[in-house]
Write a sequence for this structure.
């Protein structure tokens, strides 16, 4: 449908809505002469529309500046595709949180924190893919970020394979073997995001508890995947 036809349909719909209001005013037993007059005036205004009137200024705009850097926009598109929560039951997770030079996204299973330049107007806001502000409070993601200096082992350049992965690390003059069965989609997400930045990840695994999150880090990217399942 062309823009002109869409406008005609909208105009027709608005006129019919006013006509319904007029009918209800006349038939519901509580007739208001002033409402009748107001409706008639509005219907005449609609009939005389030559183009859609601007609604700017009638309500606060929730549009913000989009990220203009093309590479960063590609990163946001990738995050939206792979990480951002899509279901409507948690609207605050349907966007990106812009905070202190990073963009944060999560689907409640994967947390991605990407260092990025963005318009200062975005700071502290949750913004969807279209550049609109989402009202609400983003989850306190910092609460689930583990202390990697305490009970975690570091594995440089881990070999990530779908579904089943093994890692070894040296401990007390012997090698410990980790076996994990990992969701293929989550591994694919991690690999694609690090590949986008052409950065090698460092993996952090809890020393003893395989139910703790695993963390992948590089200079630009921090990704937390939870939970882990041992095979």
């Amino acid at each position: 449908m062309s823009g002109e036809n869409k406008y005609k349909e909208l105009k027709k719909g608005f006129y019919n809505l006013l006509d319904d209001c007029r009918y209800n005013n006349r038939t519901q037993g509580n007739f208001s002469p002033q409402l009748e007059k107001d409706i008639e005036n509005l219907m005449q205004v609609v009939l005389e529309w030559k183009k859609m009137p601007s609604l700017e200024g009638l309500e606060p705009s929730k549009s913000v500046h989009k990220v203009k850097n093309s590479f960063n926009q590609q990163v946001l598109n990738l995050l939206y595709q792979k990480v951002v929560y899509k279901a409507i039951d948690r609207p605050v997770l349907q966007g990106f949180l812009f905070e202190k030079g990073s963009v944060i996204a999560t689907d409640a299973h994967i947390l991605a924190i990407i260092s990025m330049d963005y318009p200062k107007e975005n700071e502290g806001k949750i913004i969807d893919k279209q550049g609109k502000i989402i009202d609400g409070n983003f989850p306190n993601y910092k609460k689930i970020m583990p202390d990697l200096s305490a009970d975690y082992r570091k594995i440089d350049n881990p070999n990530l394979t779908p579904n089943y992965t093994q890692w070894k690390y040296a401990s007390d003059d012997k090698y410990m073997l980790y076996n994990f069965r990992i969701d293929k989609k989550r591994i694919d997400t991690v690999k694609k995001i690090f590949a986008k930045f052409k950065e090698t990840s460092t993996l952090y695994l809890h020393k003893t508890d395989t139910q703790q999150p695993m963390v992948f880090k590089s200079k630009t990217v921090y990704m937390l995947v939870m939970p882990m399942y041992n095979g």
Q: What stands out?
A: The two ends are 54 Å apart (CA to CA).
